[in-house]
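[09:14] KT: can someone run the structure on this one? pasting the chain below
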Amino acid sequence: MNRVFSLLTLMFALVLSGCGYNTIQTTDEQVKAAWAEVLNQYQRRADLVPNLVNVVKAEANFEQETLTQVVEARSKATSIQATPELINDPEAFNKFQQAQGELSGALSRLLLITENYPNLKANQGFRDLQTQLEGTENRITVARNRYIKSVQDYNVTVRSFPNNLTAMVMGYAVKPNFTVENEAEISRPPTVDFGTK
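[09:31] RB: done, structure tokens below
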């Protein structure tokens, strides 16, 4: 009886090793690690926003509406629970991505408007925060690119035969990835008009 059990265990192990189970586990863990880095960088950005807003508030005549948009976008972006399950739910992932995009847009508008305030541009604290924010945006881009690559590897693994059979039996599905919201708009070449004299 023990010999039959040992033989069945060995056969089961051989079947699992040839069906991509270990590869699926490896790529799934790589996706989780890459996602954790994305979240880490988004949190870093969210932590910088209150300091940036406080420095900008010191400029007495700064556009209050712009500051309000930044604060609201940060609040929305940080209110979404970024759990590990988020990367398995395309709808929740899309909401998270939209909220982060809104914060990016609000921060871009804030930094663009600050160009009109020489006192603010001369403020060392503001310049330091702006540099940290720019560095964080670069880190977010790198982390997102790593995540995109990890998801691509994982999705190819779970969609390839015979791994797809194992993935189906074990409940592993294709994971959502970052997308470009305005894909049609950015695929058109820009219009350049230098005007006529």
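[09:33] KT: thanks! The domain at 19-177 is CATH 1.20.1440.20 (de novo design (two linked rop proteins)).
[09:34] RB: yep, looked fine to me
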